[in-house]
């Protein structure tokens, strides 16, 4: 976001913001500001951002959903070996795909969006095409579990 980055803004925060609670506002020399520009943004976040303005859910709720999905995968992965079929294939693909999607999405948002603002749209497009491919594979081929087993037995 260049010089408009929240980190580099010097305008005062709204009166209702408790600066003891949120991160200190950034003020620095141009040299330090350049270094700061290349760091991933970890705040200060505006109250609107914390509430998840423009998003479907609060960031903390999203974080919990991500962890729920990651933990669920530890059960779904071995379960697929014992209970096989289309339902398990779709469950496995959906959970692993969601996890991988959010994982990469987070890395892109933390490190790349700042330099390539449209990268998120490319990622969403790739992700939709990729997921469609997986669903197609589960419907019209041996399914993801069987495919992994076949790969292992090579
Ligand atoms: C049961 C297996 C797995 C578990 C329990 C698991 C768990 C986790 C957890 C807890 C995180 C968050 C780490 C953090 O925020 O500090 C994470 C990040 C991530 N995971 Fe997994 N994961 C598993 C398998 C996978 C697989 C199969 C993929 C690839 C599709 C994957 C891709 C990622 C990515 C891209 C990140 C983000 C890395 C980052 O932020 O630097 N994970 N995983």
UniProtKB/TrEMBL annotation:
It is found in: Mitochondrion inner membrane. Heme b binds at residue 99. A ubiquinone binds at residue 111. Gene3D superfamilies: Fumarate reductase/succinate dehydrogenase, transmembrane subunit. It is a multi-pass membrane protein. GO terms for biological process: mitochondrial electron transport, succinate to ubiquinone; tricarboxylic acid cycle. InterPro entries: CybS, SQR/QFR_C/D. It comes from the Eukaryota. One of its GO terms (molecular function) is heme binding. Keywords: Electron transport, Heme, Iron, Membrane, Metal-binding, Mitochondrion, Mitochondrion inner membrane, Signal, Transit peptide, Transmembrane, Transmembrane helix, Transport, Tricarboxylic acid cycle. GO terms for cellular component: mitochondrial inner membrane. The chain crosses the membrane at residues 68-87, 122-139. Membrane-anchoring subunit of succinate dehydrogenase (SDH) that is involved in complex II of the mitochondrial electron transport chain and is responsible for transferring electrons from succinate to ubiquinone (coenzyme Q). Belongs to the CybS family. This is Succinate dehydrogenase [ubiquinone] cytochrome b small subunit. It comes from Elysia chlorotica.
């Amino acid at each position: 976001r260049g010089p408009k980055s929240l980190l580099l803004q010097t305008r005062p925060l709204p009166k209702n913001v408790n600066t003891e609670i949120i991160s200190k506002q950034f003020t620095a020399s141009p040299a330090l500001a350049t270094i700061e520009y290349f760091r991933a943004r970890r705040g200060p976040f505006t109250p609107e951002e914390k509430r998840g303005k423009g998003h479907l859910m609060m960031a903390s709720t999203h974080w919990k959903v991500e962890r729920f999905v990651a933990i669920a995968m530890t059960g779904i992965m071995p379960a697929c070996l014992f209970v096989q079929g289309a339902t398990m294939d779709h469950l496995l693909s959906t959970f692993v795909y969601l996890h991988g999607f959010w994982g990469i999405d987070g890395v892109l948002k933390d490190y790349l969006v700042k330099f390539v603002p449209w990268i998120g749209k490319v990622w969403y497009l790739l992700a939709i095409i990729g997921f469609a491919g997986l669903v197609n594979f589960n419907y019209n081929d041996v399914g993801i579990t069987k495919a992994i087993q076949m790969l292992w037995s090579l």
